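User: Modeling request: complex.
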Amino acid sequence: MRAPRQSRRSGVALALVAPALAAIAVFFFLPVGAAFLLSLTDFDLYAIANRENLRFVGIDNYTRLLGDPLFWRALVNTAWFALLAGPLTIALALGAALALDARMLVGRSFFRTAFVVPVITTLVAVAVVWRYLYHPRAGLLNYALGAIGVGPIDWLGDPTYAMPAIALMSIWKGFGFPMLVFLASLQAIPERLYEAARIDGAGRWHQLCWITLPMLRPTFVFVGVMTAIGALQLFAEPYVMTGGGPADSTLSLVLLMYRQGFRWWNLGPATAVAFVLFAIMLAISAVTLRQRGGVDSAAPANAGWRPGALR
Amino acid sequence: MKRALGSVALHAVLLFGAGIALLPLVWMIAASLMPAGEASAYPPRLLPSAPTLQHYRELWLRLDVARAFANSLGLALAITAVSLFLNSMAGYAFAKLSFRGRDRIFRGLLTALVIPAQVGMLPLFLLLHEMGLIDTYAAVVIPGLASVFGIFLVRQYALSIPDSLLDAARVDGASELRVYWSIALPILRPVLVTLAIFTFLGAWNDFLWPLIVLADSDKYTLPVALANLLGEHAQDTELMMAGAVLTVVPTILVFLVLQRHYVSGIVSGGVKE
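Assistant: Request completed. Predicted assembly structure:
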């Protein structure tokens, strides 16, 4: 009596998971597996037309990539962007979260909303907006800087400033998300820890250094990985704001992949770029895996920072 | 006294910060209403001298942005509806039903989260090319049919549904599908709303994938249309700002109305000790 019922139930269970699993298997895992094979071929426009033109080239795409100055340029640019935007995003997120967590604060939900609104806006649209804010003559930023005697700076036209300008916009757009994560962790710290510290005579500064920050440690790791992975996927900002220029100073890895793959139709080399990106992300994710045990805890970090990258 | 001073300083800093956070969006809206040329004049203006809707009219009627708006809305809604359906079924089954290999499959699925979407993009493009789907709406929807993150989120929430509740329904003679539909789904509502917001915003804001698979400008989504518009109209600041407003405002509306669910989603998906 029990057995058929049980198996019927597992039949229903399979029917419930099958559609989602099939979609993910065919349209995600299959392409990812094929990507590795593709990166070992010279797949190009001729191969799309006729598969007879396809050749297996082994690791040629990778060795050629390592000898390509443009690839190194994109790698260095992407790392530079991550270094510029990452730490500042996290610092600002933490600062804002601490401020929003202050007990005496009036209008908490207004401030929270104001900081989170840039996060949910369309990246392409706000990148267009910032393109004009950065205008050397008519832009608001140079006008404001001019008032305190700085500038004018050709933000997007000068190879020195273009990437910092993109980073600044990304910080503005992105810090609200980790701020929410910090805020949630702050509110989860048990109040009795602070009470005990106060009884021992600890001032506010001591409470921050000896209770708040240590308790936030796991959140730091989580937010750090999430921010780094988001930063490595830099694409729309340079695409819209600079086109990768001036003088390739804002060419990112994903932008290089896009050009190789969909402008020049060199799908083999383009996939090799994607795998390099993957390897870097995997190395960064390994930090969370070690830290918190299991893929389970790394999961939201990798899906999080840019809701657009949610797959 | 010292306390009061601290409070004033805190509020001043936050007000300044909120001003900076909102300024680009406020200027975007103001500039979209300015007469042609006013947004690129020096010194820059914060408010339009004589507000006009001419740029919206031009975008909507002459440049066919209405079409892109409809594409974006239709595609984002389709992706949200389908993925919500598939993810909720799978997430519920992974949490509450037992079948062979369940935990192994789930762990395998989670590895997908450390693989960036860009890795599979080129082969997926070729696959859809083989299927004759490049430059169709289907090509935009397909990668969003189901998401590992969505299944993960639903499963975490569904774990808290008491088994006794489901068993009670079974004893009353409800079929397994009935239990999913009438008992589990209503309980899952909060997490489904959260997931719907994430998915809708993600689909609406997505750029790279639609850019890759859409060729015909009739099928462009708003971000792709906007980036394309920049090619010809980069000098028309006010027009571009009107386009940005049309793209951004729906996201802000969704967020403002459903903010509570968005925040709770980050809390449940982000921090779990």
